[in-house]
Design a protein that fits this description.
The chain is mostly beta strands. The chain contains 1 helix and 5 strands.
Length: about 140
């Protein structure tokens, strides 16, 4: 997931990599060499965003994007659409499949059409209102 495929060296803009001291702390973000932040609004920073190695400038947890405005909930219909007719950016710290429920928050325009970021993913199996399943045949005895 975090393999570098580009020819350019990817780095986070707020992290100084040429430090002469050794790694001060083992925990990334606290003296380590990974920038992450809490976005507030009652959303926790995912563990993958804190300990991961991905570089994403549009991620609300590791990038320079702030969440403001609307907070919406929807269902993941494909890899590109997160809410009915609302395209949203999804950070590499989330694992999303079709049918998962997501919570998205409004941010500054990230591209021509994308103005939302995924903040939380709720797997499809854990929600109470999942798909109907065959339970068996009951006779009136």
């Amino acid at each position: 997931m975090a393999e570098q495929t580009e020819k350019a060296f990817l780095k986070q803009p707020k992290v100084f990599l040429s430090s002469k001291k050794g790694g001060k702390g083992k925990r990334p973000g606290k003296g380590g060499n990974r920038f992450w932040k809490s976005i507030g609004l009652g959303f926790k920073t995912p563990r993958e965003a804190i300990e991961g190695t991905y570089i994403d400038k549009k991620c609300p947890f590791t990038g320079t994007v702030s969440i403001r405005g609307r907070i919406l909930a929807g269902t993941c219909h494909s890899a590109k659409m997160r809410h009915s007719n609302i395209p949203a950016h999804i950070s590499p710290c989330f694992r999303v499949k079709e049918g998962d429920h997501v919570i998205i928050g409004q941010c500054r325009p990230l591209s021509k059409t994308v103005r939302f970021n995924v903040l939380k993913v709720i797997p499809a199996g854990s929600s109470g209102g999942g798909k109907k399943a065959f339970t068996g045949i009951y006779e009136n005895c």
